[in-house]
Amino acid sequence: MLRVAVPNKGSLSEAASAMLSEAGYRQRRDNRELVMVDPDNDIEFFFLRPRDIAVYVGQGTLDVGITGRDLLLDAQVEAEELLPLGFAASTFRFAGPIGDFSVVEELEGKRLATSYDGLLRDYLAERGIKAKVVRLDGAVESSVRLGVADAIADVVETGNTLKAAGMEIFGEPILKSEAVLIRRTGEGGAANGTAKEIDVLIRRLQGVLVARQYVLMDYDIRKELVEQAAGLTPGLESPTVSPLRDSDWVAVRSMVPKKETNRIMDELYDLGARAILVSSIHACRI
């Protein structure tokens, strides 16, 4: 039975469970449940703190898990990213009092507060910057005002919290993070003979990602315009073209990016396409 770690709370939790449900797996109905078995898919879910998931997977206690890329790298364990999942996007960045810093090199000899000390130490070491790293479990933006640090390194989503604390972002992003599927690396990476089950999980999650990003577009168009229309709707391989009763016309079906749907419909209509229909994709395997 495949053992999978899922975030039990925070920004990762609800989106991770929703994605697994779309992939055909049972998920808990009560947030107090810590373990849930899905016998139909021969899989067992463990609901854990997002920060702990990489540790359990890295030690081989669990086979795979969903956590943030930032949490994976900060844990410094024997685990690797298998698949980016497209939600919980954030950026790990430096911030300091307004006007105090403009480039990362100015952090030499300074005190830096963070909740991601492993990730930050690696970043500074790679750039030869010597600074004192102060690890805090939360409210990192208050550390400068309280005299604990000169600057901070923290996960930023909107930046509003930093502005309210009288701070500004500086330097290039340390890391761009999102939710990822991870597994153990090295010996035992596919523990308990679960390699096939992991592949199935990956394909299902990839199917959800594609279904969320694409729609099916159908339209009718004159034969002589098919090549031009195919340029607008190339699909993943190529569009499906089917004959109609009127031999001068054909029906075309293709997958198109969801965010470009209306633009493509307008351009197809201007080209001469008619009966343009768009359908959602509920599940797929690519």
TrEMBL record:
<dbReference type="InterPro" id="IPR015867">
    <property type="entry name" value="N-reg_PII/ATP_PRibTrfase_C"/>
</dbReference>
<dbReference type="GO" id="GO:0000287">
    <property type="term" value="F:magnesium ion binding"/>
</dbReference>
<keyword id="KW-0479">Metal-binding</keyword>
<feature type="domain" description="Histidine biosynthesis HisG C-terminal">
    <location>
        <begin position="211"/>
        <end position="282"/>
    </location>
</feature>
<dbReference type="InterPro" id="IPR020621">
    <property type="entry name" value="ATP-PRT_HisG_long"/>
</dbReference>
<keyword id="KW-0067">ATP-binding</keyword>
<comment type="similarity">
    <text>Belongs to the ATP phosphoribosyltransferase family. Long subfamily.</text>
</comment>
<keyword id="KW-0328">Glycosyltransferase</keyword>
<dbReference type="GO" id="GO:0005524">
    <property type="term" value="F:ATP binding"/>
</dbReference>
<keyword id="KW-0460">Magnesium</keyword>
<dbReference type="GO" id="GO:0000105">
    <property type="term" value="P:L-histidine biosynthetic process"/>
</dbReference>
<keyword id="KW-0808">Transferase</keyword>
<keyword id="KW-0547">Nucleotide-binding</keyword>
<comment type="function">
    <text>Catalyzes the condensation of ATP and 5-phosphoribose 1-diphosphate to form N'-(5'-phosphoribosyl)-ATP (PR-ATP). Has a crucial role in the pathway because the rate of histidine biosynthesis seems to be controlled primarily by regulation of HisG enzymatic activity.</text>
</comment>
<protein>
    <recommendedName>
        <fullName>ATP phosphoribosyltransferase</fullName>
        <ecNumber>2.4.2.17</ecNumber>
    </recommendedName>
</protein>
<dbReference type="GO" id="GO:0005737">
    <property type="term" value="C:cytoplasm"/>
</dbReference>
<dbReference type="InterPro" id="IPR001348">
    <property type="entry name" value="ATP_PRibTrfase_HisG"/>
</dbReference>
<keyword id="KW-0368">Histidine biosynthesis</keyword>
<dbReference type="InterPro" id="IPR013820">
    <property type="entry name" value="ATP_PRibTrfase_cat"/>
</dbReference>
<feature type="domain" description="ATP phosphoribosyltransferase catalytic">
    <location>
        <begin position="49"/>
        <end position="207"/>
    </location>
</feature>
<dbReference type="InterPro" id="IPR013115">
    <property type="entry name" value="HisG_C"/>
</dbReference>
<keyword id="KW-0963">Cytoplasm</keyword>
<keyword id="KW-0028">Amino-acid biosynthesis</keyword>
<dbReference type="Pfam" id="PF08029">
    <property type="entry name" value="HisG_C"/>
</dbReference>
<comment type="pathway">
    <text>Amino-acid biosynthesis; L-histidine biosynthesis; L-histidine from 5-phospho-alpha-D-ribose 1-diphosphate: step 1/9.</text>
</comment>
<dbReference type="InterPro" id="IPR018198">
    <property type="entry name" value="ATP_PRibTrfase_CS"/>
</dbReference>
<dbReference type="Pfam" id="PF01634">
    <property type="entry name" value="HisG"/>
</dbReference>
<dbReference type="InterPro" id="IPR011322">
    <property type="entry name" value="N-reg_PII-like_a/b"/>
</dbReference>
<dbReference type="GO" id="GO:0003879">
    <property type="term" value="F:ATP phosphoribosyltransferase activity"/>
</dbReference>
